[in-house]
Amino acid sequence: MALYSSPGTPPPGLSGAEVVAGIKGTLPYLLIPDPLPGMPRALALWLEGRTAVVGPAVPVEDAVVSLGWARKLLTMVPQGASAGIHFVEDHLATLMLFQDPLLASHLSAKWLGRLADMTPQQRQWTEETLLAWLEGGGTLPAARLLRIHPQAVRNRLRNLEKVFGSGLRDPRARFELLLALKIQIMASEYARLRRRAGMQSLLQTAGPNRTVRTNGR
């Protein structure tokens, strides 16, 4: 388990010899056997109001790898933006996509950069249509997901063929395009979390009797 800051001395339920705790350094962590009776409740009470990430259960020799995954995910969950216990098992795809942020950004730009000349509204429609078509597996499922007439989806796809060409018929290209869309969605979500964390930090710094100005006002 990776933490932003030390939560203090572990409670009795977590202070046994089975638990390895490194809570005094700049990168606090806990190594806990799986399962440990009463561990989830003890952890929840001890870490209340804090952000922590739990790596998957692995053999002892791979514990450092699991901790590394937890620390990577922790950097993607800004402190204070989403307090609570997060599990690597719930974010495996995200971690895989962002193990190399530069490569992920390059993949996204390779495909979605072609939409740069569109208006924000056109780009939104295009990306929503692409995602629904790729995830749904065809025109009719996409129409149901988007709640529009199938002919409207076909019209949009004809326009998309002008942008992506034969790539829409290439399974490998479609896979990369789906990854590019997912990368953008995930990046937007984590950016939103960081903005939220920044605003919370600003409000805490300002205190209850001071006014915080935003948007230049």
UniProtKB/TrEMBL annotation:
Cleaved signal peptide residues: none
Lineage: Bacteria, Bacillati, Actinomycetota, Actinomycetes, Kitasatosporales
Pfam family membership, one: HTH_30
Name of this chain's protein: Helix-turn-helix domain-containing protein
Annotated organism of origin: Kitasatospora aburaviensis
Domain PucR C-terminal helix-turn-helix positions: 128-183
Protein origin, superkingdom: Bacteria
Annotated InterPro entries: CdaR-like_regulators, PucR_C-HTH_dom, PucR_C-HTH_sf
